Amino acid sequence: MSCLMVERCGEILFENPDQNAKCVCMLGDVRLRGQTGVPAERRGSYPFIDFHLLNNTTHSGEIGTKKKVKRLLSFQRYFHASRLLRGIIPQAPLHLLDEDYLGQARHMLSKVGMWDFDIFLFDRLTNGNSLVTLLCHLFNTHGLIHHFKLDMVTLHRFLVMVQEDYHSQNPYHNAVHAADVTQAMHCYLKEPKLASFLTPLDIMLGLLAAAAHDVDHPGVNQPFLIKTNHHLANLYQNMSVLENHHWRSTIGMLRESRLLAHLPKEMTQDIEQQLGSLILATDINRQNEFLTRLKAHLHNKDLRLEDTHDRHFMLQIALKCADICNPCRIWEMSKQWSERVCEEFYRQGDLEQKFELEISPLCNQQKDSIPSIQIGFMTYIVEPLFREWARFTGNSPLSENMLSHLAHNKAQWKSLLHKQPRSSSGSSPEHGGP
């Protein structure tokens, strides 16, 4: 494998004759185009948001100059790529943990299918390696390593890459969230109405999509990227900007790790496309689209899970449920997730205010309280989707359990909202809606 330096962005590109890959350079973006033809972003292609560059926004309407952007991107790309070239792949330091911690982590994994699984505790017990540890376990228990003849070392390397590309400084969109969504997805894949139809490929796609669905999330939302003229907003034409990036980044890591390199080309093509379809379904702006389709299927009773297309649609719905299932967890965990996501909102709002940008909805800490945001989210987003999921599962024990937690948590937030002084709550439950 040869490498060459590209002056424009300072990144390192790879030419692999076996895959006949060619590199496509764009300002602030590196994408590999292999035999599959699906563009894939290299690791680290998403720059950390450098808010110092926003100082120019009010004057020029652009985030600094191309030269500044070039400097911002170069170091991060070089840091990631040079570390890989030197063969420095950080390993999950589980062997450094006390045996008692390892024993507790193993005990928790024996109950990974329980809805009250405490991902925060599990992350502490694994020394911050919850995503890697959980995925290795689930791939093994589902028989995916044997079925797809995966190399365990390569799988571990790929999962470490995914875990590292989550930003630990994000209060919410970090690797612990990815692990939580993956654990929820595992629970949904076990639902009797779905489980009996799933193939090993379906299960692997569901788990991989859950693990990588928010990879390299910058901690700000799509409207923020659009109004600050971020290069990814331009690249994806303001459509599912973050989700497209999560998907393309995942493909880049799959190819870089060569996890699936031994599989037939047609199969890897299919896996990459289906991963994209699953991850893109998590775009909250497409909520009504998927909810309407699910209602129609359930009303017409025309879901045929023997059919690949219908089965894939239900995997999309399952991932959407897993992504927003926090309000359906027990109160102690649900409250912690709510506080984390609102903290991320408020950080964005503070930055928008600092740089004289319009503060995005739900991001104004002075007007948008946590209870009002959560009540609106539950009412307009979570409840409609999980009611239909319960219909699909035939009101399974898990679905009834989730709806019970959802009702209890909503009542808790309403109680907290009513206890807030009028001046500090600022917004009504309806204000928290879409």
TrEMBL record:
<comment type="pathway">
    <text>Purine metabolism; 3',5'-cyclic AMP degradation; AMP from 3',5'-cyclic AMP: step 1/1.</text>
</comment>
<feature type="binding site">
    <location>
        <position position="177"/>
    </location>
    <ligand>
        <name>Zn(2+) 1</name>
    </ligand>
</feature>
<feature type="binding site">
    <location>
        <begin position="173"/>
        <end position="177"/>
    </location>
    <ligand>
        <name>AMP</name>
    </ligand>
</feature>
<keyword id="KW-0114">cAMP</keyword>
<feature type="binding site">
    <location>
        <position position="214"/>
    </location>
    <ligand>
        <name>Zn(2+) 1</name>
    </ligand>
</feature>
<feature type="binding site">
    <location>
        <position position="214"/>
    </location>
    <ligand>
        <name>AMP</name>
    </ligand>
</feature>
<dbReference type="InterPro" id="IPR036971">
    <property type="entry name" value="PDEase_catalytic_dom_sf"/>
</dbReference>
<protein>
    <recommendedName>
        <fullName>Phosphodiesterase</fullName>
        <ecNumber>3.1.4.-</ecNumber>
    </recommendedName>
</protein>
<dbReference type="InterPro" id="IPR023174">
    <property type="entry name" value="PDEase_CS"/>
</dbReference>
<feature type="binding site">
    <location>
        <position position="214"/>
    </location>
    <ligand>
        <name>Zn(2+) 2</name>
    </ligand>
</feature>
<feature type="domain" description="PDEase">
    <location>
        <begin position="97"/>
        <end position="420"/>
    </location>
</feature>
<feature type="binding site">
    <location>
        <position position="374"/>
    </location>
    <ligand>
        <name>AMP</name>
    </ligand>
</feature>
<feature type="binding site">
    <location>
        <position position="323"/>
    </location>
    <ligand>
        <name>AMP</name>
    </ligand>
</feature>
<dbReference type="InterPro" id="IPR003607">
    <property type="entry name" value="HD/PDEase_dom"/>
</dbReference>
<keyword id="KW-0479">Metal-binding</keyword>
<dbReference type="GO" id="GO:0007165">
    <property type="term" value="P:signal transduction"/>
</dbReference>
<dbReference type="GO" id="GO:0004115">
    <property type="term" value="F:3',5'-cyclic-AMP phosphodiesterase activity"/>
</dbReference>
<dbReference type="Pfam" id="PF00233">
    <property type="entry name" value="PDEase_I"/>
</dbReference>
<dbReference type="InterPro" id="IPR002073">
    <property type="entry name" value="PDEase_catalytic_dom"/>
</dbReference>
<keyword id="KW-0378">Hydrolase</keyword>
<feature type="active site" description="Proton donor">
    <location>
        <position position="173"/>
    </location>
</feature>
<dbReference type="GO" id="GO:0046872">
    <property type="term" value="F:metal ion binding"/>
</dbReference>
<feature type="binding site">
    <location>
        <position position="323"/>
    </location>
    <ligand>
        <name>Zn(2+) 1</name>
    </ligand>
</feature>
<feature type="binding site">
    <location>
        <position position="213"/>
    </location>
    <ligand>
        <name>Zn(2+) 1</name>
    </ligand>
</feature>
<comment type="similarity">
    <text>Belongs to the cyclic nucleotide phosphodiesterase family. PDE7 subfamily.</text>
</comment>
<dbReference type="InterPro" id="IPR023088">
    <property type="entry name" value="PDEase"/>
</dbReference>
